Amino acid sequence: MSRMTVNGRPVEYLMDEDTPLLWALRDASNLTGTKYGCGNGDCGACMVHVDGVALRACLITIAEAEGRFVTTIEGLSRDRSHPLQQAMVAEQAIQCGFCTPGIVMAAAALLADNPAPDEAAIKAAIPNICRCGVYPRLIRAVERAGRVARRQERVTAAPAPGVEAADAAREEPALTPPEA
């Protein structure tokens, strides 16, 4: 039995303690934004934050995550309004989308530590593999998200389905749901 906080909520997994965190998140918590890619830590598709650090969920067991704070792509922003998510859309840095959650999580950890990373820092902090090859656009998106976080720029990208554009671009969540 392993206990931790996942996306701000206490969770107790009644699974073998050697179960990779990836499978606990996907199978027991139905947080399927964390993707299974290679299973050996090479691709980064399963990247999550553990105590604010970007880690590959396929390489950490639930026993190792005991008592820690885990954030998945679902916990980064409920309505996809995080500056990085908006910048990824605005810079067209998403192709098939499979690797995107892991890339966003790696980049979000970088921006939390360094809101003005240069290209070398971005490349070093995001080891994820993208088979679609969005790397140049990815770098522009991370740089742009950093400017947004530093309030030097505002990004307006297509919002998630069901979210009004004006609400997605707000700096604070909307207080009332959009009218249908």
Which characteristics define this entry?
Ubiquitin-like (UB roll), 33% helix, 5-stranded mixed sheet, alpha+beta
Structure, described:
Residues 155-166 have a biased composition (Low complexity). InterPro entries: 2Fe-2S-bd, 2Fe-2S-bd_dom_sf, 2Fe-2S_ferredoxin-like_sf, 2Fe-2S_ferredoxin-type, 2Fe2S_fd_BS, Beta-grasp_dom_sf, Diverse_Oxidoreductases. This protein has helices at 21-28, 73-76, 83-90, 100-113, 119-125, 135-149, 165-168, and strands at residues 2-6, 9-13, 47-50, 53-56, 69-71. The chain is an alpha+beta fold and 180 residues long. The chain has two domains: 2-74, Ubiquitin-like (UB roll); 83-168, DNA polymerase, domain 1 (Orthogonal Bundle), CATH 1.10.150.120. A five-stranded mixed sheet has the order 2-1-5-3-4, with helices on both faces. The chain is globular.
In short:
One of its GO terms (molecular function) is metal ion binding. By secondary structure, the chain is of the alpha+beta class.
